[in-house]
Amino acid sequence: MIIEGNDPLSMTSPHRASEGDIHNDEGFGVQERSSSLEDQTVIEMDSQIDTALSYTDGKTPGELKDGRIGEQEDDPDETEQLLDKREEGDTEEQKSSNTGTKYWATGNFISVVTSQWLTPLFRAAKKRGLNDDDLYHILPVDSAEKNAKIFAQLWEEEIKHHGGNAVKASLRRVILRFVSWRILGCMLMVMLSQMTVFLLSSVSIRGLLQYSADATAPVYRGILYAVSAMLFTILYNITLGANYFIAASTGVRLRGGVVALLLQKVLRLRGLHKTSMGEIVNLCVNDGNRLHDGMVFTPLVVGAPVIFICACVFTTYILGKSALIGMLVYALTYIAQFALTGGKVIYRARMMKETDQRVHTISEMLTNIKFIKMYAWEDCFERKVNELRRRELRHLVGLRILHGIQKSFNIFVPIVAVVATIMFKLFLKESLSPDQVLTYLAVIYSMRSMLTMTQYGFQYLSDILVSIPRIKNLLIQDEMLPITDSVDDWSNAIEMNSVSAAWDDCSKDKKTQCDTARDKEDHDVIDRENGSSSDLYGACALNDVSVAVKKGSLVGVCGSIGSGKTSLLHTILQQTHILEGSIAVSGSLAYTSQQPDIFNATLRENITMFGDHCEDEVENENQAERVHSEERYWEAVRVCCLSDDIAALPCGGRTEIGERGINLSGGQKHRVSLARAVYADRDIYLLDDPLSAVDTRVAEHIYTECIAGILKEKTVLLVTTNLQYLSKCDEVIVISNGRVIEQGTHTQLMTDEAEYARLLRTFGSDHDKTADDYISKQNEDESTDNDDLLANCSTRTLNEEDCLDENIEGQLVDAETQKQGAVSTGTYLAYFKYAGGILSCFLSLLLYILSPASAAFNNVWLSHWLSAGSGIPQNGTQLQSEDEQDILKNPEFHFFRDVYLYSFLSVFVICSLRIVYYVMITQRASFNLHRSLYKQVFSCPMEFFDTTPSGRVLNRFSRDIDEADNEVPNALETALWTFLSVFAGIVIVIMVFPWFIVFVAIIAIVLVYLSRMFLPAIRDIKRIENIKRSPLIGHVKATVEAQTTIRAFGMGELFIKRCNKLLDTSAVPKMLFLMGQRWLAFRLDLCVAVAQLLLGLSVVFTHNTTAAAFAGLALAYSVQFLGTLQFSVRLITITQARFTSIERITDYIKRLIPEGGTGKKHILKSDVESWPKHGNITVDSLQLKYRDNLPTVLKGISFHVNSKEKIGIVGRTGSGKSSIAVALFRLVEATSGRIHIDDLDIGSIRIRELRSRISVIPQDPVLFTGTLRFNLDPYEQYSGAQIWDALDKTYMKKSIAGIQQQLEVRVRENGSNFSTGERQLLCLARALLRNSTILFLDEATATVDAETDSLVQSTIRTAFSNCTVLTIAHRLHTVLDSDRILVLDDGTVLEMDTPAALLANPDSRLNALLSSGHDVSVNQTNHCGHN
């Protein structure tokens, strides 16, 4: 039976790699897909381009005619019906259009190809700048949701075609099917555009040259040739514009479809065993963008063969067989492009692996930044990140050199072709005329645009070839399978029959390995892959487990750390691989994790899982349903003891919560997670130790009011380390080494006198100390009666809405600001500084100037040589005879030839130097930018990370750095050489026709006018695009982190919808950025068309007065203007737009303020080398607030801790316990007051020095991806013997010793191949190694079982006997043997004394916490030394 009420996405496996049939689900049913596809066909008719081509994504014309896709058939009348609906305006898209929604490219054909539809937007940008509201909306046919369905179906069909084996399926074929007809349309437009360029040079330019050489030619012939040059230029412009529009919209569709499908796949994965956070972020952001750009530029590749074939025929006709030498040069160049692309694919693939690791490491750091700061590990991670960066840039250098070689072809290849042809012609002793040579030169330069286009095409083709295998690698990963078995007994909610499961995909023949390993009592963690792997991913989770859970029962699950308690829940959730046995579930699921998943949203949205903002639900909900939802929300708040917490928040439930609940305490996060489950109102509740992070009073309230109260009719599987609650469960399951060793009622298990009875008798007495009486008393004062609570719901909601409207204190994260105006000069200077300084950049610029200058000199010298002819003076206006034109007869032939060849060699040498030097300085800039950004970001105070979404920061380190590495150097380089080439051409034309400078001045005026419209718009659009990426990255990151929770609650569809919306909003500025360039390009190419006409007329009207050789040279260079002029101007503006990424990086570098500034003079490092020696701590009138606009959390507290004293810190949630650690580690600087350690003010010590001298074991255990040794000793300060000794004292030695790799074993992301308890013990081992004088324990044993807790407490007492220890604990027995206990409430010290003195005082708060009727003494609780 499929689990009811859960996300259908998580219940399907259309893309899994295992063999077998591929099952469709409702979300991806063929009927729905086919219908949506035909709907798309109808909507697509609105596009003039698509109407002309009659193409639809992934469908052949035959399929369109038949109304089918692949093998699926639909009703042929549906299209006609949809057309009728479209005419009636009944479709959603039409309704949106009727209500004034602005879609892009909605004009006629001319408006589309000329980008005229963008003009109103550009005018608005010129007047006031642009913001989000000014941008157009994406066309429904281009939306991610529609295209994800299309792409998913094509991928599914490809898998079916290969017998269900996704590994053999070709993602390339799927992409080709998806874009096939549209991309063919693009290729057709490219071929037409190249044909017009060829006709321009072969017909118009050659005709003008012949006219110039013929003194008797009629004027009208010259005018016709001049007009034809203009018309060919305009036709080239139109066809290229049509190509770019079709390609850009195709790229948007492909990007949206693929990225949306990737996120759907992530939500179906069993876990991140074979991928990482960094890789997924890169796939969705960088690889998605590369697919888009690839669709735009890859079609340009096909233009080369067309113009090459035409050029071969034509040049052979005019120049003879010698012309084939030049054509051979181009052919070899084309082949070389393939070879260089292959090399770039290799370098790019290697570089992306390093990029994934770097981004993953930074993502991990952002997630665990508090821990890194408390341990002062920033320098350690900086070395790690810099090493990854160096390896990444080594591959980038190779990539950039190959790219530079390709770029140099633009200058070098035409010259080589001309030189080789002329030298071969001279070698054959054949005569050369200016008419022949200059026509040949014009054709060669017309092929230069082919080179530029080919380079772009191959560049982005190489990126696609790298991205496709990376995307496929994720798509073929194993998915969660749906539970299809029905329960045998309908009174059971869960049935597990002989289930053996592993965390990774182990085949059944490995079951024996699991059996053998699980039988060994000293192995808690098992090596995978038959002992040959370096990680733990294949460790068996469960072994031969049979469990039946009755409906409506409360079942407790207990066991030691690493025993398999969490594995049991994850197996029910299908997060593990089932090796043997079967699972059946009857009912819908709710789940709370040991590490709660809290989203960057309001508290209310976290509890309702965004129910308040689910538009579909809100529209369909009636008033009664809303009231019921509101009552359910407040009931969930009450039973999870959140009423007081919400009342204390500035905007109540509308208060914004930071990522991962950064502004909530550990206990609050657990209670929000539990409230989410209660609000969901499911049949089965899987609760993973929700009581461990809350104090005794709150735990008792949650158990009584929630677990045993509101959920009493539900089926609850409660994993807990709080043994006192097991006696109240209907049934108890005891797990050890992945096996169920005991199962039954509390009474039965106690009678059996086995492991359960031993645990309860040994450790249960301390956990029986609750606070029933205290809670009853406190509830009268602090809690609202249920009836009163529900009665006041409307009032509270109104207050929250008022606060929401005012948008004040409840907002934690500020919107990302968008800069206005031009990119500042300081940004360019900063980049030049990081590249090596102004002098280095000037030298590079000089080499760039010399490259086109040397090439221009080579061509000018050739014209001079041809003009000289045989050296015989020209006879007036008469045509030169063949003897007069024969340069072989010139007495200075060798001089002309040698200068020509030497100038050619100089071009080669200068280009080579330019490539190497430019790569060197841009690589230096990339490394220095990243290093400075890292230093500045990770030296920020915690306030920055609390109020800045990690997606925003990760955006800088991923996409912005990617642009700094690739796009900025590429744009800057291309802009330089194109501009200088155009400038050289203009100079040559003016030398021939001096009056042309007037037209250049007019063009400059037009250019200024267009730029004043274009530049502000394109700059703002690029800035908006940069900003729009951050929410997408943050959403992807949050989805990956909360994958299990999202799927368990069936919220996958909502998260996918949000992803689709973010993809669409981020696609809009990307599309506008590209089409905005075409807006400028079209208008500048019109200017070039006019220039072609004027130059042609100049040749006509200066007939017989201008040397034919120089006139021909001017005409040849005019061909180069076509495309190159607008390309150079466009690239200059695009370079400025690209520099917005550098602007964003340098903004962080300049603006962020590092932590540690107290205004006090820092003590030298040499003065604190042995500090602290004793560990005395004095807190004097300490006040602390986390931010200026937040209330004070520590209100002038004062206390003193003696050397080696053990202090227990207790108090209810929010009393300020953890804030003491925050102040001690200076994560937040104190508002007033001081903390002295050994009589030294900690504010006068450098902040990292302070943190490195104090150790902490945090409430949430942290492990990083890498080796276990790195996690314990990242600075490599300790010997192997010392590390093993620390593991032995924390009872992890046997577990680690049982792994073949031992200390070198790989730790998975978030340490998820260790249980939470094991991670906590490893954190304790880490603290033991540091051997600090002062140790702070923040709920260090909250997640371990009672027996391990007892052992750990013994270790803490013995190993840290010479240390000052401050312990925060909810388990009171862990602090009752302390020297003194500090009791806090609302940021103030209520009492501080020895446990005996406090317990002897009947009015003490500590005594109230233990006033459950049990006799308590310090001696009774001092049992931790027993094993």
TrEMBL record:
Keywords: ATP-binding, Glycoprotein, Membrane, Nucleotide-binding, Repeat, Transmembrane, Transmembrane helix, Transport
Main location: membrane
PANTHER family per record: ATP-BINDING CASSETTE SUB-FAMILY C, MULTIDRUG RESISTANCE-ASSOCIATED PROTEIN 5
InterPro entries listed in its UniProt record: AAA+_ATPase (IPR003593), ABC1_TM_dom (IPR011527), ABC1_TM_sf (IPR036640), ABC_transporter-like_ATP-bd (IPR003439), ABC_transporter_C-like (IPR050173), P-loop_NTPase (IPR027417)
Domain of life: Eukaryota
Keyword Transmembrane carried by entry: yes
Family recorded in the similarity comment: Belongs to the ABC transporter superfamily. ABCC family. Conjugate transporter (TC 3.A.1.208) subfamily.
ABC transmembrane type-1 domain residues: 183-463, 899-1137
Acidic residues: bias regions: 72-81
Keyword Chaperone part of the UniProt annotation: no
Species of provenance: Strongylocentrotus purpuratus
Localisation per UniProt entry: Endomembrane system
GO MF annotations, alphabetized: ABC-type transporter activity; ATP binding; ATP hydrolysis activity
Domain ABC transporter: 526-762, 1179-1411
Transmembrane segment boundaries: 181-203, 223-246, 296-319, 325-347, 409-428, 828-850, 899-920, 977-1010, 1080-1101, 1107-1129
SUPFAM superfamilies found in the cross-reference section: ABC transporter transmembrane region, P-loop containing nucleoside triphosphate hydrolases
GO cellular component, one term: endomembrane system
UniProt region (Disordered), positions on chain: 1-100
Biased composition (Basic and acidic residues): 16-26, 60-71, 82-95
Membrane topology reported for the UniProt record: Multi-pass membrane protein
UniProt-listed GO biological process terms: transmembrane transport
Protein name: ATP-binding cassette transporter subfamily C member 5a
